[in-house]
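Table S5 (text form). Sequence records supplied for joint modeling of the two-component complex.
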Amino acid sequence: MVRAKVVATAMLALLGTFLTYANGSSDRRIVDVVLPRPAASNETIGLAVRVGFLPRGTEVEVTTPAGELIGTVSPFGIRDHQPAGTYTFPIRQSMIHDGHVAVFLSVKRAGTQTRAPTPDEVTDVSVVFIRVAQ
Amino acid sequence: MTSFLGHSFSRRQFVGSVTVGLAASVAPIGSVRAQSAARYTRYNVSCEKGQEMLKSYGIAVKNLMALKPDDPRNWFRNAFIHTLDCPHGNWWFFVWHRGYLGWFEQTLRDASGNPDFAIPYWDWTETPRIPDGMFDDALKPSNPPYDPYIKDFKTFYNYLNPALTEYWKGLSASQLQQLETRMIPTLDSLWTQVKGDEQNGAMFATTRYARFLTADSPEMDASTQKAVEPFMVRSGLKPVEFAKFNSVQTPSHNSAPGSGPGTFGILEGNPHNKVHNNVGGVGHIMDPLNFGYMADNLSPVDPLFFLHHSNMDRLWDVWTRKQQKLGLPTLPVGDDLKKFEDEKFEFYVNRQGKPVDQNRAGDYVNIGGFDYGYQRGFGEDIIGQPNVAIAAALSGRFSGETVAGVGAVNVPHALLQQHAAGTLGQPLVVQVTVPRPTSGAAPREFDVLINAPPGTTAVTPDSPYYVGTISFFGFMRNMTGDATFTVPLPQNVQARNGELHVQVVPHSPALAASVSEAVRPETASVLKAVAVSTW
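The corresponding structure-token record, covering 669 residues in total, follows.
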């Protein structure tokens, strides 16, 4: 598993074997994770998004740079000020380019403008390899 | 209304009955019976039989709403069982909801007057909108039949609080301890959470806001349709390990979701959560005090809850049958199994409204005495991968850790199961690394032992610990360093606490005893490194 710490908008950071960066847009954060290796034939790749406390009704949308929706962090049953947890989204092979997976993260809530997540809201993004039977 | 005089299962009957799905047919999606052994069938709500069940369901819901609130089977009282005890974001999610639905299904059957009733399932992958019929009468919580109970919070509180006050007085110390863990230490704190506030939202909703999606706009939104799409659901069914299929292991089923690493399984974290929230209006309604019931832990007030969780339970059954077909574990292995099965579920009630005797998670790992099966739905095609896929999934090399000559290798239980069954398709070997002899008088033959007591110095070939003998051929002065030998593992090899313990001792005790102190190893075993591998 390789992890990419999510950094503040417009920062550029090299962290070990992976690159994490964000553009200047205030409505999203870009995270680029380098895969440490290709998936084996008995593995699928997932993107694990670790989320801190989110105000009730708030969701985090995960898309490809092309705008294709990968999934949405939608907390359920979370109690007072608890972190929302880590959510895993399956990644298609077509989303991997030169050993990288780049995703956009946006915070959405009805009646408010879409914005980039704060470092406390999305605390970590990582690639996970999941053993499967095909 | 029926007499509600159904029988309850004894523990023996409950755990001893057939497991669903073992006889799953290969009929196409939409065919009628998934397995002939089950007494009841949970149909896809979109098919004709499912729609018939929905009519019975509507009758049952109305009848249970009419029960007095001091009856635990009362529709709203039953919803509070979920509020007080439901696990989310941990590995008891599927098994707890199986018990919750299973017991209440019997109550619904009695209340419906239909002796064949079983909760239909909403296969949102095939039907990403509220199913037809779920806006009718008591099947929609924003319809007039709900007004006498939930038209406003005061009405709801006055209706239920006297009964809940009495119920609270009867809770056991163990139940109260569980509620403490759950951060609901008192009845007042429960009502505070039900009423909610702007920051945290509310579990309660007035009739007007009880469900967000409407008959005019029944489609799930784009992000929810993404969460239920075939790729997502198949991805959730694919993991071969229980720990990856499920959400994370936590100290208690009452641990807060998201605590610790808080990793959700794909199926719980995506389709489960998104369907709940979309039906409740998350992402569409600005004021979290106006989310519908499905958006929080009082969600069983909305009858859709049971169709949604019937589908989640169906997917667990699909995953289980996939694992069985592959010869892979369907439950945690080693010490984790006991931790999983011993978790106490102490809030279920049966069709008589009494607490149930089956209060361990382990009582619900099989469908057992609930005796239902599923009509085939989305995901069935994942069952039945060829054996070659098993080997591909399990092949690999598992390095161990060696301390003082004893190596410990963590080997997947599934791999040993396949090896024992002779279906692995390739040999399973242990690779031991030992130092080369340092003199002509030093031992050159060694026995490889599995799971022998530490300090064992010698065994005979008929010993249960004996695996094989490795030999250096002669002694050459220029031989230095270590050598690695590969020895096939016997078919009956078993792990202890998930590990194989490996030692390598001189083959001849007499020879070993004759070795001078200078060259005798510090421990009986000379092992330096170990691995288990498919070969």
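Note: Residues 5-24 of chain A have pLDDT under 50 and may be disordered.
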